Amino acid sequence: MLPCHLSPRMSAALMQVRWFRSTFSEVVHLYREGSDQADQQIAPYRGRTELLKDDIAHGSVSLKINNITPSDEGLYGCFFQSPTFYEEAILQLEVAGLGSSPRLSVNGYQAGGIHVVCESAGWYPEPRVLWRDVRGQRLAPVTEEVSRQADGLFATHSAAIVTDASNQNLSCSVLSPRLRQEKTAQMHIADVFLPRASPCWVALWVILAGVVSLVLVAGYCFWKLRRGRDAEQAGLKEDIRNLRSELEKEREILRSELENERGRALAESGWSKVSKHAAHVILDPNTAHPSLMVSKEQRSVKWAGLRQDVPDNPERFDCETCVLGSAAFASGQHYWEVEVGGGRTWAVGVAEESVRRKGWINFSPEEKIWVVDQCGSHYRARTSPETLLPLTASPGRIGVCLDCERGLVSFYIPGMEAPIYTFTFSFTEQLRPFFWVYSPIILR
Fold first, then answer.
1. What letter would DSSP give residue 112?
2. Is pLDDT of 321 > 50?
3. What is the dihedral of CA 10, 15, 20, 24, to 10 degrees?
4. Is 41 helix (H, G, I), strand (E, B) or coil?
5. Statement: residue 66 has pLDDT above 60
6. 53-58 long-range Cβ contacts below 8 angstroms, 24+ apart
7. Helices and strands (H and E) in the chain: how many
8. Is the pLDDT of residue 257 over 60?
């Protein structure tokens, strides 16, 4: 059960309520226009979720997830949206499961003792195994293996060796570190089964000790012979050290040249250089989602909350609140700036002319879209998988530079020379400025 409610309490019956995983488009459960939108869920959650609406009139929209599996672990977002405001909360779900009771079995004699095996399955996360003797003291296992099963749960296989009567009563406990609970199995080994020393074994050990002594004497004589050869090899090793020193010096020279080359590349692609290629970008109202309001001068856009009565032409986005720029670029270098203000949900970048306009879209290079975005407190480059950006507060304004010749899309905070992120790609058609809008944005 994932809890979520509005504070101060108010009715959420007519709002959009979206539960999602780490990205906004990974819909776990969507409630909109007074009903659940099951067709919008990502496949792993279909038929497994339930939005509890008993208290929705007071803003409570807890989510129930059935048949929990380890893959459900992670971050979840709870997002409210009405015509006048939107807000989100982030929750961390941890999954834990107790496995089967340990099963102890004897696997014959080994290393002068009785080989005992402890097995258990169905644990999550990875469990710990503890062996104890009759006094409760820990015993060290001789082997320990933890494997992941097809269902994502863990199985453990551990073995210990009992060598004397003091360990006749032993136990094996499998512990869940997350739940701090354990399951234990015990075994008693009768004294008659424990191996004992015999005169034959004593004689064998004496003979082995004599053999070892002879081997040591022979080894000393061999070492004396090798000592002369070692002196000859010492000179060769000194030559090798000198050669390595020379190679290290050459490496330092190459590293210095590489750093200089990187500095020159940064100077060529720094903000003060690329900002000189300013392009006059305006928005294309024919592509704007019906709930977006594009200003008369086509330089700003905001989310209206309600769908407007506009033609459903093929160019228009119908599910994602997106809009394209009017200009299409096929060559040259172009730079524009977008004011994102204090908003918390936006994306800016470029997309190819043939980008899909209908249905839900995954903002990624695979969809012919190259953007950075903010969703709540997260700033990301929409790669696959996503790349978190080193931003802790809203940049206020984002600069976008498209270099068609080099196949680069770079994003800047105006005034800072180094880009915050750069995509490298090979495009096959014209590119247009791309915007995802929940927070108002203004072209500068």
1. T
2. yes
3. -120
4. coil
5. yes
6. 53/13, 55/5, 56/11, 56/12, 56/13, 57/11, 57/12, 57/13, 58/5, 58/9, 58/10, 58/11
7. 2, 28
8. no
Distance from C-alpha of 351 to C-alpha of 432, rounded to nearest angstrom: 6
**Three-class DSSP category at 383:** coil
Copy the structure tokens of residue 413.
Answer: 């905070």
Cβ neighbours around 159 below 10 Å, total: 20
Q: Closest Cα to residue 279, out of 337, 339, 330, 322? A: 337
Q: What distance in Å separates the CA atoms of residue 369 and residue 365, rounded to the nearest whole number?
A: 5
Element holding 292 (H helix, E strand):
strand 292-294
Token pair recorded at residue 98: 């107790």
φ/ψ of 11, rounded to 5, equals: -70, 135
In whole angstroms, what is the distance from residue 279 CA to residue 444 CA? Answer: 10
DSSP secondary structure letters along 175-201: EETTTTEEEEEEEE--GGGS----HHH
Which phi-psi region, left, alpha or beta, contains residue 45 (left: φ > 0; alpha: ψ -120 to 50)? alpha
Using CA atoms, how far apart are residues 329 and 349, in angstroms rounded to an integer? Answer: 13
Distance between CA atoms of residues 430 and 392, nearest Å: 34
DSSP assignments along 249-281, one per residue: HHHHHHHHHHHHHHHHHHHHHSHHHHGGGB---
DSSP category for residue 168? S
The Cα 39–Cα 45 span in angstroms is 11
Q: Tokens 């990875």 label which residue?
A: 126
Picking from 80, 108, 73, 67, the residue whose alpha carbon sits closest to that of residue 16 is: 80
> What is the reported pLDDT for 431?
96
Beta bridge partners of 337: 399
Tokens 């003979």 belong to: 207
Plot region of 342 (φ>0 → left; ψ -120 to 50 → alpha; else → beta): alpha
Q: How many CA atoms lie within 13 A of 345 on its CB side?
A: 19
Distance of CA 263 to the CA centre of its chain: 31
**What is the Cα–Cα distance from 34 to 335, expressed in whole angstroms?**
43
Angstrom CA distances, 315 to 302, 352, 389, stand at: 19, 13, 31
Q: In this structure, are strands 431-437 and 333-341 parallel, antiparallel, or unpaired?
A: unpaired
Report, in this order, helix, strand and coil percent for the chain, each rounded to 5. 25, 40, 40
Least Cα distance to 45 among 69, 61, 78, 15 occurs for 69
* Structure token pair of residue 242: 């000198």
* 347-398 pLDDT per residue, tens: 999 999 999 999 888 899 999 999 999 887 788 999 988 888 888 788 889 9
